[in-house]
Design the sequence.
């Protein structure tokens, strides 16, 4: 019995030979590298999956830098507003209010409020983008958030105009809170968008791996079935050979018997 | 299944030794975040793909090409969508910066007013 009749598909060489024979068929498919497919049909997909990782890394880097820049502006604004608060109070409040106790209370209040904005500004510089629980319904809520941003802008413009007109401590606090609130919202939006995109990419990757592995497992199952059938054929063939051999031996024996017969 | 159980399962698997160690190191030195899970999955998939003896047929290659194209297109959609979102974020932050600068100027004006008031008093 010839080796290939039994071993077809069992060893790597058989598979490679078969793939080599497919070369002409692959050459007819435009836009695909025969070598890539023949040697590593998964290379292209792997390359694409690696590129999304790089994309996320670059996007995050850009976001971190952006939030740091605006966070810095926010911190500077907070510090300035804080120092102004004390100076302005000292300069503008009446003598009664400038009595020790009153001055302390008032300046502390302004200080607390502005320190709060300043500290938040520093904290905001950290862009995380990995809160996946919050990101899950990001896509559904996106339109509402965008609408909210537009409404916030209108409110903030009103607050700024009001502060510009009165220049009161309360007005400044309102502006500061508005800035903090908007910064927070934009940061949440960015982080959720980023995390949602990563979740979606992970889902796509899983689906892709599943498809590719299904093709692989189906091919292996088909090959296994084929080998089983070939083995069945081989064993039938072997049985025929055995019978032939026995028959031959019997006939040889007969010839010998004939010869030996007197 | 907890992380240790996963590590034990990986240890007992037929994954190629060097790759197996890489996965174990990843798991032992990190929390099971989405990123770490993705890295582990990528390594396991690489191990699967490293078996080049599977005699894929032309039909298999076509199906694999189609799956890869679909995946590429879906990933491109994710990239485009995130690019749009981040562009929106950038615009919002730029607007916010302008707003902060405007508020900053008013604080300056208020400070000047306060100083004037101090001088007059």
Sequence:
């Amino acid at each position: 019995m010839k080796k290939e009749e039994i071993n077809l598909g069992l060893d790597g060489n058989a598979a490679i030979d078969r793939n080599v024979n497919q070369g002409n068929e692959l050459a007819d498919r435009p836009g695909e590298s025969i070598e890539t497919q023949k040697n590593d049909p998964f290379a292209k997909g792997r390359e694409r999956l690696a590129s999304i990782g790089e994309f996320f890394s670059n996007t995050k880097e850009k976001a971190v830098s952006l939030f740091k820049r605006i966070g810095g502006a926010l911190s500077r604004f907070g510090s300035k507003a804080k120092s102004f608060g004390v100076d302005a109070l000292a300069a503008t409040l009446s003598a009664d209010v400038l009595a020790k106790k009153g001055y302390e209370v008032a300046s502390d209040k302004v200080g607390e409020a502005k320190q709060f904005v300043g500290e938040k500004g520093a904290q905001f510089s950290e862009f995380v983008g990995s809160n996946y629980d919050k990101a899950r319904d990001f896509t559904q809520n996106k339109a509402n958030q965008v609408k909210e941003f537009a409404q916030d802008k209108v409110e903030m413009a009103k607050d700024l105009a009001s502060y510009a007109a009165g220049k009161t401590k309360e007005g400044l606090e309102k502006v500061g809170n508005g800035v903090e609130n908007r910064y927070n919202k934009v940061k949440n939006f960015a982080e959720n968008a980023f995390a949602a995109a990563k979740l979606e990419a992970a889902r796509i990757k899983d689906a892709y791996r599943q498809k590719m592995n299904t093709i692989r497992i189906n091919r292996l199952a088909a090959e296994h079935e084929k080998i089983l059938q070939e083995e069945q054929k081989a064993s039938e063939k072997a049985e025929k050979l055995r019978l032939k051999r026995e028959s031959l031996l019997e006939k040889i024996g007969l010839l010998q018997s004939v010869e030996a017969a007197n | 299944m907890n992380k240790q159980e996963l590590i034990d399962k990986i240890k007992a698997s037929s994954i190629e030794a060097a790759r197996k160690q890489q996965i174990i190191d990843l798991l032992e030195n990190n929390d099971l975040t989405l990123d770490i899970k993705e890295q582990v999955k990528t390594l396991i998939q690489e191990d699967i793909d490293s078996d080049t003896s599977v005699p894929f047929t032309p039909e298999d290659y076509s199906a694999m090409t189609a799956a890869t194209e679909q995946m590429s297109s879906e990933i491109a959609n994710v990239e485009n969508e995130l690019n749009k979102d981040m562009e929106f974020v950038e615009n919002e932050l730029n607007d916010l910066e302008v707003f902060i600068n405007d508020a900053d100027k008013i604080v300056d004006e208020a400070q000047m007013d306060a100083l004037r008031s101090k001088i007059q008093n």
Observations:
- Residues 32 and 38 of chain B are 10 Å apart (CA to CA).
